[in-house]
Write a structure and sequence with these properties.
Elements lengths: L4 E12 L3 E12 L4 H11 L2 H5 L6 H4 L13
Length: 76
């Protein structure tokens, strides 16, 4: 069903070592869930957090989309 399909096109451009130009083109297609494309774009944006903040390891916010690696208590 065409109305249940979301498509996102992403193009990244940049320069590598030695000022060499590079680009990456991606096409993301998801079916059925109405917010799946938006969630995928949020995950792509979260990919920029670790390099910008010099963090390493899993990105908990992105991991929580499927299942969290941390166990949370129901107590506050």
């Amino acid at each position: 069903m065409a109305e249940d399909r979301k498509v996102a096109y992403v193009r990244l451009e940049g320069r590598l070592f030695g000022a060499q130009c590079t680009h990456v083109e991606m096409r993301l297609e998801v079916e059925i869930p109405s917010n799946a494309a938006a969630m995928a774009l949020i995950a792509i944006r979260l990919r920029e957090v670790p390099p910008a903040t010099r963090l390493s390891g899993p990105v908990d916010d992105a991991s929580a989309f499927r299942s969290s690696i941390r166990r949370f208590s129901s107590r506050t």
